[in-house]
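Support request, please re-run this one:
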Amino acid sequence: MSWPAREAIVPATFETVTIVAGSASQTAFDIEEQRARIERAHEETRKFVAEQHKPIAEQSNLAAEQTKLAAEQFKMTAEASKTAVEQTKLAAEAAKIGRDRGIAPWQVALFGMTAGVALFGAGTAFVKLLGP
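Re-run finished. Output below.
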């Protein structure tokens, strides 16, 4: 009794295989060949999965590196902000010193006049104390 030939698809590779059913002595239905094809298909699937895991791992490494760079950029921005504040304080102090340098000669003159007025007042009080 002979069975009709049938077409079957191997799931892992999607290749069409002709299966001839019949007596055990028929060579078309070679179990070892079928097993070898299935093993090859499984191996190809494993390789494909391994190849897909490589880019995923690289992507996660790049994401981690990007996170580190973002944190470093945040720190540098904070440091730049602190530097800007310090620069503003130093500029204000420099402006104050510049004003003081411009006023210094007038301060000496005013101090001299004040001292002269004080001595004049003290002399006047001494003369009034001694006088009639």
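Residues 59 and 65 are 10 Å apart (CA to CA). Strands lie at 5-9, 16-20.
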